[in-house]
Amino acid sequence: MQVPVQISFHGLEHSDAVEERVREKVAKLEQFSKDLVSCRVVIEQHHKNTSNQHHKGEPYHITINLSVPGDELVVKRDPKDPHVHEDIGVAIRDAFQSMEQQLKTWIGKQRENDRTAHKSA
Fold first, then answer.
1. Is the pTM of the predicted complex or chain greater than 0.70?
2. Burial class (CB in 10 A: 0-12, 13-18, 19+), 41
3. Which terminal CB of the chain, N or C, has fewer other CB atoms within 10 Å?
4. What residues contact 60, with CB distance under 8 A and at least 6 apart?
């Protein structure tokens, strides 16, 4: 990665364990392509109730912006069912699975473009 990974927490306390998990997931993405430029991950927890006492049961929203040469891949996980991502680990897993699929698709397109360019040269 050309730029260090950026991890932001909004609406919840910073967690070293969560940050480490995100860094592991980003490292896995790097195994698919060494061309990654940058990655920014935002972990949010929106609170319907303004009281800080009512955080339990609120869903996590994960946004991943992955810059690759000439493009940017984005995953924004805003669950429609608020119970789907009450577990931060599940929210992170699902978001990174989606990003992995996007990255694999992008890599496939790059390889196809390279083959097409090579044949016409």
1. yes
2. buried
3. C
4. 12, 43, 44, 45, 85, 86, 87, 88, 91, 92
- 41: closest CA among 24, 28, 22? 22
CATH code, domain carrying 66:
3.30.160.100
Q: Which of 28, 25, 7 is nearest to 16 (CA)?
A: 7
Query: Does 1 map to a domain?
Result: no
Give a yes or no: residue 111 inside a domain.
Answer: yes
| Residue 85: predicted pLDDT | 57
Predicted local confidence at residue 53, as pLDDT: 45
- At 18-45, the pLDDT tens digits run 999 999 999 999 999 988 999 999 999 8
Rounded mean pLDDT of 80-102? Answer: 84
Sheet architecture: strand order including 38-45:
6-10, 38-45, 60-68, 71-77
State whether residue 85 is helix, strand or coil. coil
Other C-beta atoms lying within 10 Å of the C-beta of residue 2:
9
Number of structural domains, the chain? 1
The DSSP 8-state label assigned to residue 55 in this structure reads -
